[in-house]
Amino acid sequence: MVSTVRILGTPMDYGANRRGVDMGPSAIRYAGLADELEQAGVESVDAGDLAVPRAEEIDLDRNVEEDADIWGVDNAKYLPEIADVSSRLADRVDETIADGEFPLVLGGDHSVAIGSLHGAAREADLGVVWFDAHADLNTPETSPSGNVHGMPLAATLGRGSFGEMGWAHAPRVQEDSIVYVGLRSIDDRERELVRDSEMTAFTMADVDERGMTSVVEEALEIATDGTDGVHVSFDLDVVEPKSAPGVGTPVRGGITYREAHAALETVSERHERDGVLRSMDVVEVNPILDEANETAELAAELTASAFGKRIL
Ligand SMILES: NC(=[NH2+])NCCC[C@H](N)C(=O)O
Ligand SMILES: [Mn+2]
Ligand SMILES: [Mn+2]
160-189 pLDDT, tens per residue? Predict the structure, then answer.
């Protein structure tokens, strides 16, 4: 059982170049997240949404060179907004843990994980299990898109120009405590980064071969080894697009509906045994691209599985 879950909505889509994921938190709430959590037997409190600067209020015509002046990088879109939101989110996550509650961050695009990880790793050495079709390890120097949702792990590890950004780099997250599950779409330059890293990558081929339960059990072994707790980051695009159509960067060949539940049930079983879970985020639900809120419903259901909801 986890302590009270504190829901921290983070309606940000700047990391995905403004494509509608900012509506993710409300869609997941409408899909019945609070009820699902109640059925899982956990108490939850909804802390509402973090204030995210509205697109109308920022200067969208701002020359990218201005961002480059501030950060010394010119290939990371909306970096000033993302830095602002990430720092505030990190404070909220840290506060939540200090208050004895469990931070559940609802994205928003995957750049919100920069703030979740930074906050959760302030007072602890943190392992990470990263469910995703993508590796999200690009730096501004390698990114083909300039979208920061493809960079959160590089940011956390302080790679490339992120090394200079205190709001991004979380030194208590060590590379060898990060484990991917479900990878199947990696950019060419990113592939080298993953191969040369100390992270463990369970691709879809590993899931095929070994089965989800065994993969996630081992992922948790690695992420808990030498750390004080684990953050689970769940990008809905890890799921097969037929079951999760409402995501901005769908890739076919993903995990099935049942595998997704099995993955998070495995997380909750482990947590029930030794309380390893410290924080979680659920990201990339895009209601504009969804079909009748199906992906948000899946996100709510899967979250309940992570907190102990069972069939029987
Ligand atoms: N969190 C995500 N959905 N990331 C998608 C990243 C796609 C691509 N690798 C990029 O860097 O642009
Ligand atoms: Mn991602
Ligand atoms: Mn992804």
Answer: 999 999 999 999 999 999 999 999 999 999
* Ligand (nearest to CA of 139): 1
Residue with tokens 């699902």: 36
Tell me the CA–centroid distance for residue 193 and ligand 1, in Å.
14
141: left (phi over 0), alpha (psi -120 to 50) or beta: alpha
The first and second tokens of residue 21, run together, are 């994921």
Based on the number of CB atoms within 10 Å of its own CB, is 218 exposed (0-12), middle (13-18) or buried (19 or more)? middle
Domain 5-306: CATH class, spelled out: alpha beta
135 touches 193 (CB < 8 A)? yes
- 238 touches 260 (CB < 8 A): yes
Identify whether the C-beta of residue 75 lies closer than 8 Å to the C-beta of residue 140.
yes
Q: Residue 19's pLDDT band (boundaries 50, 70, 90)?
A: confident
Q: Given the residues 109, 284, 290, 301, select the one marked as catalytic.
A: 284
Binding site membership of 143 for ligand 1 (Cβ less than 6 Å): yes
Atom of ligand 1 nearest to the CA of 284: 3
Domain ranges of the chain: 5-306
312 alpha carbon – ligand 3 mean position (Å): 31
> Which one-letter amino acid corresponds to residue 91?
D
Q: Catalytic one among 132, 206, 240, 301?
A: 132
Q: Where are the alpha helices (DSSP H) in 124-279?
A: 152-157, 188-196, 204-210, 212-224, 257-274
Gap between the terminal Cα atoms of the chain: 16
What's the predicted TM-score (pTM) here?
A: 0.97
CA dist 154 and 258 (Å) reads 30
ipTM of the complex: 0.97
CA distances from 2 to 6, 32, 102 (A): 11, 19, 7
